[in-house]
Amino acid sequence: MDEGVLVKAGQDVVVSVRRALGGNDLGDLREAVDKEFLTLDEHEQAVRSVLAKMESDLIRRLAGLYHG
After folding, report:
1. Whole-angstrom Cα distance, residue 10 to residue 32?
2. Is 35 left (phi over 0), alpha (psi -120 to 50) or beta?
3. Residues 6+ apart with CB under 8 A from 18
4. Which domain covers residue 57, as residue numbers?
5. Is residue 6 part of a domain?
6. How far is residue 2's CA from residue 37's CA, in Å, rounded to a whole number?
7. In the chain, how many domains are there?
8. Is 63 a domain residue?
């Protein structure tokens, strides 16, 4: 489970999660979690790269306005 909310009211317990993996074998779950984190790391690196390009473009344009 990545993140979520647990609510207990009396005997009732409700869990709401954004992303979760289920299963009975801890080894399989560990492999699935490791794979998911690698995928997220690759996605995060791609997003950071795009953001860095956008930031440098913005700075270049602002500098052009200031000097132009």
Report:
1. 34
2. alpha
3. 2, 3, 4
4. 24-68
5. no
6. 10
7. 1
8. yes
Residue 14 lies in a domain: no
* Amino acid identity, position 60: R
The pLDDT tens digits along the chain (68 residues) read 667 899 999 999 998 987 778 889 999 988 988 888 888 778 888 888 999 999 999 999 998 888 86
Contacts of 52 (CB under 8 A, 6+ apart): none
Question: What local confidence, expressed as pLDDT, does residue 52 receive?
Answer: 93
Q: Please tell me the distance from the alpha carbon of residue 10 to that of residue 40, in angstroms, as a whole number.
A: 37
E strands within the chain?
Answer: 4-9, 12-17
pTM above 0.70, yes or no: no
In angstroms, rounded to a whole number, what is the distance separating the alpha carbons of residues 5 and 16? 5
